[in-house]
Design a protein that fits this description.
Strand order of the largest sheet: 1-2-5
Shape: globular
Radius of gyration: 18 Å
Distance between the termini: 42 Å
Largest sheet: 3 strands, parallel
Oligomer: single chain
Order of helices and strands: HEHEHEEEHHH
CATH architecture: 3-Layer(aba) Sandwich
């Protein structure tokens, strides 16, 4: 529901919908991020994230090379924010701090049924709601955001569990 609301707020024309694994392994998918504000992909696959070069380039503001089928390749700097949802976080071969520091995880413990969804949600009703939510988050947590810029961040429990599972799954020496 949150990703749906964000996409409606930004406008469909300003959002691409490419899965994380596709950005890494499909040379044509990266072009979808060109000129977009966000890349929102629901239901991230739980298959192994093999490689993280493209993910790191996108999140650090590096120039990437993209290609559209039947056209010349081109360079651009993606500014789209990557947003994914997942029932289970995918394992990764990447164990470095440079990979894990790029993630911000938000754990949702409530599931909404189709009956609970509001079909009347439109840009007119979403914009004031999102604006109020952003104001609330800023005012409640602005000290945290200032702290985050200066210090290491203490990540929520779901992130630590994912990190532990990923490390154990890719490095059996950690078990000892």
């Amino acid at each position: 529901m949150l990703l749906y609301a964000i996409e409606r707020f930004l406008g469909h024309e300003n959002v691409s919908n490419v899965a994380l694994q596709d950005l890494q392994h499909n040379r044509f998918k990266l072009a979808h991020l060109h000129g977009k504000l966000a890349n929102i992909s629901a239901d991230l696959s739980s298959k192994l994230m093999d490689g993280s070069e493209v993910f790191k380039k996108i999140t650090s503001g590096d120039t990437v090379n993209a290609e559209k089928k039947g056209k010349d390749s081109f360079d651009f700097i993606p500014f789209a924010k990557l947003m994914f949802s997942a029932n289970e976080l995918p394992p990764s071969n990447e164990l470095g701090h440079s990979f894990f520091r790029r993630w911000v995880l938000i754990e949702f413990t409530r599931t909404f049924t189709k009956e609970e969804r509001d079909p009347k949600l439109t840009c007119d009703t979403l914009n004031p709601l999102i604006y109020k939510a952003l104001c609330y988050v800023y005012h409640k947590y602005h000290k945290f955001f200032n702290f985050y810029r200066k210090q290491e961040i203490y990540i929520c429990g779901c992130y630590n569990l994912w990190l532990l599972r990923t490390m154990l799954g890719t490095n059996s020496a950690i078990l000892y």
